[in-house]
């Protein structure tokens, strides 16, 4: 069965790595079912990352995510949640360089905050974040293209 996940190309990766990342996404068999480029407001970034509200890095994270455009993508394929997380690699690029040198974060990320890409961690979180970012049209099959 096909699965959807929400992927985000973060502001640190937009200028230099967006095209490479999008090409690699397509090359790994994901369909890009929806996408939009957007500058997040503080309000939206705070809500998007509400699970991290109590973390010491929360305000830095929100500042960073609002500093320029992000690319928001709905990715569809079998096992999309797990496969996109594997493609990203660990949150911390230093760890990514050790354990998965081919991953996007190993190759493109500067540090644990500025880590180039985001992906939902579970199917349930993916559904919640997709409808938060894209609204209820996210399941409309007619919008799917590759
Ligand atoms: P992401 O996968 O989008 O989920 C939460 C984000 O918070 C994470 O990527 C990083 O951008 C950031 N983050 C996670 N842990 C830390 C940390 N220890 N210090 C700073 N930023 C972090």
From TrEMBL:
Protein's cellular compartments: Cell projection, Lamellipodium; Cell projection, Ruffle; Cytoplasm; Nucleus
Catalytic-site annotation from UniProt: 118
Binding site for ATP: 10, 57, 85, 91, 105, 115
Function: Major role in the synthesis of nucleoside triphosphates other than ATP.
Protein family according to the UniProt entry: Belongs to the NDK family.
Protein name stated in the entry: Nucleoside diphosphate kinase B
Organism of provenance: Parambassis ranga
Gene that this polypeptide is encoded by: nme9
Full-sequence portion shown in this chain: 451 to 596 of 634
């Amino acid at each position: 069965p096909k699965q959807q996940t929400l992927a985000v190309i973060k502001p640190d990766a937009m200028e230099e790595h967006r095209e490479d990342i999008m090409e690699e996404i397509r090359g790994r068999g994901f369909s890009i079912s929806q996408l939009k480029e957007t500058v997040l407001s503080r309000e939206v970034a705070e809500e998007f990352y509400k699970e991290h509200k109590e973390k010491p890095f929360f305000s830095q994270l929100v500042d960073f995510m609002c500093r320029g455009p992000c690319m928001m993508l709905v990715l569809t394929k079998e096992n999309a949640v797990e496969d996109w997380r594997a493609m990203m690699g660990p949150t911390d690029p230093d760890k990514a360089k050790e354990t998965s040198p081919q991953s996007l974060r190993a190759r493109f990320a500067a540090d644990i905050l500025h880590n180039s890409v985001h992906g939902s961690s579970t199917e349930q979180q993916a559904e919640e974040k997709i409808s938060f970012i894209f609204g209820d049209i996210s399941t409309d099959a007619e919008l799917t293209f590759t």
